[in-house]
């Protein structure tokens, strides 16, 4: 699988230079899906941008999402007619847009789509993520049909979690890169 067809989907405010997503993009050649506005994320705009990038891939893509990027995958999959162009999704540290503290900032992201994803997925959740309770992460995994991985107490699974280039994450991602696309 070509690295350019592995799509990095950061969350709200993008992923900074020390985030594992940025390190994977730099070191492995994965493609970041650039959003028009990282600070004011509008669900419809983000879905449209993901659709454009998925359609530009020359083979089925693998989505590598963090935080709000996980909700983007679920929202996109619930609307797109091109889900067959995705081989799998790796969902890490989902944000919970319905959490009281996030609702005022992420107004267009509620309700969170809870339909089963039409492609294989793995969801990695942290026991002490401030943006999504462990129980809610498990519930997302169940609703989306994702294999759930307990990362232990790792915060939001971002640069502040001290993951660096996150070798354990690349091990979890590896099997998804070899899956045969569902058609």
Notes on the structure:
The chain is of the alpha/beta class. The chain has helices at residues 20-28, 43-56, 68-79, 134-144, 167-177; strands at 6-9, 31-32, 61-66, 86-92, 121-125, 147-150. The two termini are 17 Å apart. The relative contact order is 0.17. The mean pLDDT is 96.
**Number of DSSP helices?**
5
Shape by Cα distribution: globular
N-to-C terminal Cα separation, in Å?
Answer: 17 Å
- Identify low-pLDDT runs: none
The helix/strand order is EHEHEHEEHEH
Average pLDDT taken over every residue: 96
Rg, Å, rounded: 15 Å
Strand order of the largest sheet: 2-1-3-4-5-6
Largest β sheet strand count, sense and barrel closure: 6 strands, parallel
Number of strands: 6
Strand content: 15-25%
Class based on secondary structure composition and strand pairing: alpha/beta
What is the assembly state of the chains in this entry?
A: single chain
Helix content: 25-40%
Key terms:
alpha/beta, globular
Task: Please outline what is shown here.
With 183 residues, the chain is of the alpha/beta class. It has helices spanning 20-28, 43-56, 68-79, 134-144, 167-177, and strands at residues 6-9, 31-32, 61-66, 86-92, 121-125, 147-150.
List the helices and strands and how they pair.
Elements: E1 6-9, H1 20-28, E2 31-32, H2 43-56, E3 61-66, H3 68-79, E4 86-92, E5 121-125, H4 134-144, E6 147-150, H5 167-177
Parallel strand pairs: 1-2, 1-3, 3-4, 4-5, 5-6
